[in-house]
């Protein structure tokens, strides 16, 4: 098996999109397809199922992914061991949208100044599949809110806390209240960003004083969409304060004073316990510890 083909396979397995894979690898989509077919022919198995525009790993593909990542890590380890430029390489991370937009730019700037030869690839982070992605080697690191350790094979480093705030449009009925409680919120529509709401449990505990936990009226794919919908008057939401700080300051959103607040959520960096930490990855983790939660 060619390492080039394995690298293409691992990239496609993480993105599940031929076009995006080609862009990441600076290769034509036809080249990506050719490399995947070469692997499938050599192994005499189907690695992906093509369902219309969707691509999903087969059982054989899932098995190969574990070995392919190990083989590429060994290659990177060998290069780092014999190269004069041991700090070159690639880092793949999964980051919630609000962290990516509001905290990661400072980290990347500091990292680029320190190690300009390392490349960083950022993937969207959905809290529910993070541990499995780390096990499969889809990502090197993952950043999450409100992590509850449950897997012995996942290492977690606490990086700090972010304040959670409830916000609504300035003309929302709750915007004029001095204090807002769970019963008040239940009377109105709730919006949540599915891509960013691993801290949702904190809000649910706050609302548990009522008999029933409300289901979100709208659950959208991104924080920016949730903010736009709240500004349009479609409901209220809870987000890390950093994600709505500018909107509140500009008067576009109103911060709701929650009874029992303020509320906080922890920010954690996760990696698999058996993951080989390349020099590039170790340096990136050190920069994250120093810069991610810096105001």
Description:
By secondary structure, the chain is an alpha/beta fold. Among the domains are: 1-82, Winged helix-like DNA-binding domain superfamily/Winged helix DNA-binding domain (Arc Repressor Mutant, subunit A), CATH 1.10.10.10; 162-266, D-Maltodextrin-Binding Protein, domain 2. Helix content is 43%, strand content 22%. The chain contains 12 helices and 11 strands. Strands 3, 4, 5, 6, 9, 10 and 11 form a 7-stranded mixed beta sheet that branches. Strands 1-2 form a two-stranded antiparallel ribbon. Helix 1 crosses helix 2, helix 1 (3-15) crosses helix 3 (29-43) and helix 6 crosses helix 12 (279-291). The longest helix is centred in the first third of the chain and has 24 residues, at 59-82. It is elongated. The termini are far apart. The mean pLDDT is 85. Residues 1-58 form the HTH lysR-type domain. Pfam families: HTH_1, LysR_substrate.
